[in-house]
Amino acid sequence: MHLSVALYVGFYVLTSAAGLTESAPGSSYVAAVYEHNLVLNPEPQVPLSRPEALRHVEKNLQIYEEQSERAARQGAQILVFPEDGLQGFNFSRSSISGYLETIPDPQQENWNPCTEPGRHNNTEILQRLSCMARRYNLYLVANMADLQPCPLSTSPSSPCPPDGHWQFNTNVVFRSDGQLVARYHKQNLYFEDAFDSPPQPEIITFETPFAGTFGLLICFDILFKEPTVTLVERGVRQLIYPTAWMNQLPLLDSIQFQQAFSLGANVTLLASNLRHDYLIMTGSGIYTPFSATFHHANRGDPEEGRLLVARVPVLDPLGAGPSVTQEEGAVRDESTSSAADTDSGCCHQDSCLDSSHPETTSAVSPSSVTFNSSMMYDPFTFVLLNKTEGKLDVCQGPLCCHLQYRQSQQQGGTQELYALGAFAGTHTVNGRYALQVCALVRCAGLESSSCGQEVEEAETKMDFLLEGTFGTRHVYPSILASRHVLEQPEHLEKTADGRVTMKHSNMTGGLVTACLYGRMYQLDNE
Ligand SMILES: *[C@@H]1O[C@H](CO)[C@@H](O)[C@H](O)[C@H]1NC(C)=O
Ligand SMILES: *[C@@H]1O[C@H](CO)[C@@H](O)[C@H](O)[C@H]1NC(C)=O
Ligand SMILES: *[C@@H]1O[C@H](CO)[C@@H](O)[C@H](O)[C@H]1NC(C)=O
Ligand SMILES: *[C@@H]1O[C@H](CO)[C@@H](O)[C@H](O)[C@H]1NC(C)=O
Ligand SMILES: *[C@@H]1O[C@H](CO)[C@@H](O)[C@H](O)[C@H]1NC(C)=O
Ligand SMILES: *[C@@H]1O[C@H](CO)[C@@H](O)[C@H](O)[C@H]1NC(C)=O
């Protein structure tokens, strides 16, 4: 079922054995996400009148309308559009005014903007989206700009902005009859002058008849505890993720972190990105812990939108089943676990480096030969892979990363340099977040100083086991191959003491990055 639906729209589908047993008949649904090449306002710093703003938004709404129809024809029950997809970005607090609507709180009132357009003034965008959901009989998620009046106060501790209202970057959800059922205000803004963060983080979910509960987040939120991890900790296992994500290799490419979050949190993620080449925005997908259907444009591809549709299993809340552990982090693929561990002969206790095994000893490089190089603005400690196979360790602070690897022969004899890196510290550029990261990366050149720089392509395929001892249970694993293709890790495992292991072999493309991205949420404010 997964395969037929996904292949028919023509994208990459990765399905591990476990996925096929997950969906009993009736316990799956068809999800769609649209990567939108938006029509921009060329002068976002210049305020527009309301009619001018609506004329601009209408160009994007027309594309939404066409894609809603296409998605419905393919059986989609829920369709997700990206962050900023209607108005664009780079507005100031005042120049966005023509685009703002006051979105009523669906927890306070039931309103169907399509059938009761007169109930609230100045809601043309809400009406248009509501009628789309209704016409195509699907749940529709879009992102727009909300204005909410707030009580002015002279108290400096008042959260209300001095102009007497908040402006929020907002997800809205419409039921298949058009009723507005959820409204979520983005918590973690990323250089968005036009918007405020809500005074309290909002944990927003909604119910569907076909798949139960979904939770809402937006773009940068995915890296933070609120609301994302709180949603997951409350048992929400299906997340909706409009984004406008600027890709940053080698660790934070859009699809790479989308997959990583889905695998690490053991959840489904419906991720819809913008397509905008100048800002390096592309990469959307439908991810479950067992499969990924994704799209990521490459350099030179025509700059256009892309609809993805896939049938995916309903994920029941964890804790409901009999054999579920308390850990909410990594995935354990039951179909491969025990056999794989034995085959590989992998073990990483000190005793395994016992010199009575000659072939093991010769493969161990001295771990002391490390160097520092910056990756994504963070000072990683690296060690080079300078053989075709071997074992390596690299540590930074309390974090130790271990790698066992075997390169398959490279096509055309191209020489490519790889390094294993560790970072334990707080990232502070363009956002502050505490990390523990183990990453195997292809270096951009043949000098060790190029390790950690961006590279998109690789020819070297590698069988590997990557492991780290983390001080958090929030570890997000991913494997990115050449030209932005994800591979589904063959095996993932996590132990109670914080050790996370990712094993993979038989790659279909050259390896760009294999990463275990640990988030130390508890240290973010220190
Ligand atoms: C955003 O606006 C500023 C100021 O007008 C401009 O310098 C910058 O290039 C704009 N950025 C984008 C991505 O449009
Ligand atoms: C909508 O706007 C009109 C004209 O400004 C006003 O007369 C009417 O009371 C408003 N209706 C609502 C529901 O706010
Ligand atoms: C992940 O989810 C699957 C399916 O819902 C479940 O069987 C498995 O136990 C979960 N894994 C972890 C580590 O919680
Ligand atoms: C790498 O950086 C760490 C501090 O981050 C420092 O203690 C260490 O000496 C550096 N190593 C090299 C080889 O420069
Ligand atoms: C690999 O690196 C180690 C440590 O720098 C060095 O001793 C060894 O000679 C290197 N091996 C090869 C094959 O280059
Ligand atoms: C990888 O490929 C080899 C050779 O084709 C095969 O024997 C092995 O079973 C494959 N491993 C996995 C995990 O698929």
Task: Give a quick rundown of the structure.
This protein is of the alpha+beta class and about 525 residues long. It has two domains: about 30-330, Nitrilase/N-carbamoyl-D-aminoacid amidohydrolase; about 370-525, no CATH class. It contains eight helices and 25 strands.
Summary keywords:
7-stranded antiparallel β-sheet, alpha+beta, single chain, 526 residues, Nitrilase/N-carbamoyl-D-aminoacid amidohydrolase, globular, binds 2-acetamido-2-deoxy-beta-D-glucopyranose
Pick out the low-confidence regions.
Answer: 1-26, 320-366
Largest sheet: 7 strands, mixed
CATH architecture descriptor of the largest domain: 4-Layer Sandwich
**Computed Rg:** 24 Å
Output the CATH class name of the largest domain.
Alpha Beta
Helical coverage, percent range: 10-25%
Structural class: alpha+beta
**Number of separate helices:** 8
Cα-to-Cα separation, first versus last residue: 48 Å
Shape: globular
Task: Give your account of this protein's structure.
This protein has 2 domains: 28-328, 4-Layer Sandwich (Nitrilase/N-carbamoyl-D-aminoacid amidohydrolase), CATH 3.60.110; 370-523, no CATH class. The strands form 4 sheets. It has a 7-stranded mixed sheet with strand order 1-12-11-10-9-8-7, sandwiched between helices. The protein has a 7-stranded antiparallel sheet with strand order 14-15-18-19-25-21-22. The chain is built from 8 helices and 25 strands. It is α+β, with helices and mostly antiparallel strands and 526 residues long. Helix content is 16%, strand content 31%. Residues 319-345 are annotated as: Disordered. This is Biotinidase.
